[in-house]
Amino acid sequence: MNTRKVSAVCLAILVAACAGDTEEAAEAPAMPEMSADEMALEQLREDWVTHYNMGHASVVGGNYADDALSLGANQSNFAGRDAIVADMAATMEAASPQIELSHHETMTFGDRAVGWGTYATEATTPDGSVASSGTYMTAFTKVEGDWKIQVVITNFDAAPPEGFAYGEAGEPPENEGTMGDLIGAYQTHYNLGHPSMVADFYADDAMASFANLPPTEGGEAISTLMAERMAANPADVTINDVGTIDLGDGWALDGGWYQMNAKDGGDALQVGTYMLLVNQTSDGWRIKWAVTNGGPAPAM
Q1: pLDDT value for 27
Q2: What percentage of residues in the chain have a pLDDT greater than 90?
Q3: Where does residue 192 rank: exposed (0-12), middle (13-18), buried (19+ CB within 10 A)?
Q4: Beta carbons within 10 angstroms of residue 292's beta carbon
């Protein structure tokens, strides 16, 4: 709209007001209403943060499914709500952490949903205050009509300080995922040093948050990042596809773990876990969202 039109509109509004026009002003376009599921998921996030910051581990734990899985940024992986709550309680007692979530997007698939965002935490230790931040992706499922957290993965958006104490990842589970074609092709082209071909496995509007890096959005940006990473740190990756959840309508959630090795059969450099939201297209499965975390490979 040009300046003359803007001025004319403003003048018309002013004249109507001064004349005591009783007609109601046109209402601003209404924001899209949230669905009942979206509101419930938003309330879950708010309750989670409130009670986490109050140190109520058992209350926070009520937001998890019995068989929930937590893939932590520090490489501590916990299976089952009881194990997740126990770790949370220990952390709260030791460091009184406070957290802020910045939620970015949620997609719902009937009785399942997937969302991602970023977080920032601050904890108090005997050595002083410790801050960290990163990305999270959470898969939800309905249990008797209520939304519960089924799987959550977090990472750091920068490398932890030297000497950071990583957790115990435990024994990796068997590979039972169904994304073998996608994972195999991704691994092959990564190891051959084909950044653009690896990036082709991502949707044009994809989000990828790799270990110790902030989120990267858009296929072109991911391709650029891939090229930079491959040039700076040449390595071979082995990806283990542990499990896949069918979300319906050509969508799925996939997760597993990976190991990076120096080129040509060199030493293990890094291990970590990953979670992907993928969509089946005419060109095959494409990654919509990806979150990976990682830490130093354990000494053999």
Answers
A1: 61
A2: 79
A3: exposed
A4: 24
